[in-house]
Structures are given as C-alpha cells and as structure tokens.
Write a structure and sequence with these properties.
- The protein has 6 helices and 6 strands; from the N terminus they run E-H-E-H-H-E-H-E-H-E-E-H.
- It is an alpha/beta fold.
- Strands 1, 2, 3, 4, 5 and 6 form a 6-stranded parallel β-sheet that branches.
- It is globular, with a radius of gyration of 16 Å.
- The termini are close together.
- The relative contact order is 0.20.
- Bound molecules: flavin mononucleotide.
- Flavin mononucleotide binds next to helix 1.
Length: about 180
Amino acid sequence: MKVLAIYGSPRKDGNSAKMMEAALSEFPPEAEIHRIFLADKNFAPCCAERHCLELGYCDVEDDMQEIYKELFWAEVIIFATSSQFGDVTADLKALMERTWPIRGKLKNKIGGYVVSARRYAESTLNTLHAFMLRHKMILGNSGAVAYTVTENGGLENDGLAIKDSRKTGKRLVELYNLIYNK
Ligand SMILES: Cc1cc2nc3c(=O)[nH]c(=O)nc-3n(C[C@H](O)[C@H](O)[C@H](O)COP(=O)(O)O)c2cc1C
C-alpha cells in the first residue's frame, strides 16, 4: 500500500499535522508512507504560460518535479491543511494549480483529508473536494475537520478532531482493501 501524506500547513508540527498522524496511525505496518511537508519545498504556483499544452508535462524546474513523481507513485493520497483565509493554504493551492498538466493521471487514486480551522472551513472543504473530483480520484469520506483550534492549540477541545482523523485513515484503508482485493 503506497500512501502519500501531504502536509499543507506552514506549521510542520501543528494541528493539521497532528490530525494527519492520527489518520496515518490506522494504516497497517506494511503500508509504505511517504511524507511531504510543503513548508520545506520550494515551488511556484502555475505560471499559466501553457508550455505544458505542447510538452504534455510541466517543465518548470522546481520542487514540484519531485512532488509529481510522488503523486504518480501513490495509491492513497492524504492532504492535511489548516484553513487560511477560508481556504487551503497557499502552498497547497499552488500544488493544486500545478497538477493541471497531469489531469487524468491521478484517476482512481484514493483520496482523503484532514483540516484544522478556528471557525471557517467551508471553502477549504470545497477546494479539496473539487480538486479530488476534478482529478477523478476516489474520495474516501467526508474527511476530518477540527474547529476552534488555533495556533495556540486546542485540538483537545474538539472531541471529534482526532477521532474523525482516525476514522478517515480507517476508511481509506477499508477502501484500499476493497479496491485492491486485499
Ligand atoms: C494566515 C492565517 C489565516 C487563517 N485564516 C483562517 C480562516 O479563514 N478560518 C479559520 O477557521 N481559521 C483560520 N486560521 C486559523 C488556522 O486555520 C488554525 O489556527 C489552524 O488550526 C492552524 O492549523 P495548523 O496548526 O495545522 O497550522 C488562519 C490562520 C492563519 C495563520
């Protein structure tokens, strides 16, 4: 089982990262888990010059090249993001834009997400859903959302945050086993 965990928050040990770890804790020991912290990566949003239309791939030489390889490798892709200005983080949105040239290549990969927010996360969820559906990924479930959680902490105040993160992991494993006949 090839699992790619993409951490979108600038805070590598923040709330959404903790939720991601809870989701990953449900995967069996044989699962191969690759982690990408976008905060460590250097890549730009889409330049919209449309070179990719002729080339069939994105030729912008930055860390997205390594991320493309990981996206192709994965069978299960999980996103963690904080809600920032009501949406996914800028890094995660940039990654999403840069997947435009690989439309069709993420088809049938299993997808899930965990989101931490202080209060407003509706558009964050819409963006994640739209991304996965546009790529014809298989959206595992409704994901996990933590509310009333700030940079000062508070995950423990939302009794469902970690519980739902685990449920998300569990559901992705269940779906994997169903699809791959395990
Ligand atoms: C620049 C910025 C913008 C934010 N905007 C929102 C927002 O629109 N809605 C919200 O619910 N929380 C917002 N927050 C709060 C974070 O989503 C919240 O603290 C989250 O739990 C942080 O997760 P992390 O520890 O994984 O980074 C914002 C935080 C930052 C730094």
